[in-house]
Structures are given as C-alpha cells and as structure tokens.
Amino acid sequence: MSRLLKLHGVWDTSLVEQLYGGQNEMTVAKRLVQKYASRAAEWQEGRIDLAKIQAWIEESIRRAKDLTYAQIPGYPCGADMKRTRITLSEEYLQHAEPVVEEQLAKAGYRLAAMLNRTLGD
C-alpha cells in the first residue's frame, strides 16, 4: 500500500481489497457467516432502534480510537493531517486484518437483523 490514502480509506477500502480482492462475494460472505456464527446472537440481540444504532456508532468510534489510531506509533493527534504523512507498517496492516474481518461479519449480521425485522423473516 504505497499510494497516499486517508486512514479511513485504508480501513474502508484498501484492507478489504487486500483481504478479499478477486474473491467471490458469496463465498466470502458464507465463510464469514460460518466463522462468526457463535457471535450472531450477540450482534443481533435486542430491539433495533435509534438508541441501538447510536450504541453501534459509539462502539465503532471506540474501536477506531483503540485499534486504528492508537496503534500508530506517534500518531499526531490534533495535527494538520493535510501536511502530516504517516507510513503504516506491515505489522500494523497485519494486525488490522482480523479487525476488518470481524467488523465486516458484525455489520453483515446486524444488517441481516435489521432487514429481517423490517421485512419479516
């Protein structure tokens, strides 16, 4: 990943492409469903309302702070990021891969719960 990207772009796109690029989406989805089946009930529990969605947002923000930004040595919190460049190490990228995988699975399970409740099982 030598091109210049914003950090959220690395997490939202580049890491996903690195992990799953060229693979069939259905195959990837089935693999994630199988791997994380034991977490499905946890990720889909409760009523889905604005409070629940807000909790999901806050959880994502915490994970971003703890796993995305805090893991970058010397991350210049508050720095002018238009002028500051950060190089992500291979170790950082390898650490990110299981997080990306879990977050994709979690999002899929949560979306499925929302659709099932909205449209009916």
What does this structure look like?
- This protein has 121 residues and is mostly helical.
- The chain has helices at 7-20, 25-35, 40-44, 50-69, 90-119.
- It has one domain (7-119).
- It contains five helices and no strands.
- Helix 1 crosses helix 5.
Q: Please give the share of residues in helix.
A: 55-70%
**CA-atom Rg in angstroms:** 16 Å
Shape label: globular
Strand fraction band? under 5%
Q: Name the poorly predicted regions.
A: none
The main pleated sheet reads as:
none
Mean pLDDT: 85
Domain unit count: 1
Number of helices: 5
Number of strands: 0
* Pattern of helices and strands: HHHHH
Distance between the termini: 41 Å
Question: Structural class from helices and strands?
Answer: mainly alpha
Break the fold down into its secondary structure elements and pairings:
Layout (H helix, E strand, L loop, with lengths): L6 H14 L4 H11 L4 H5 L5 H20 L20 H30 L2
Helix pairs in contact: 1-5
Keywords:
single chain; 121 residues; mainly alpha; 5 helices; 66% helix
Quick synopsis:
The chain is mainly alpha-helical and 121 residues long. Helices cover 66% and strands 0% of the residues. The chain has one domain (7-119).
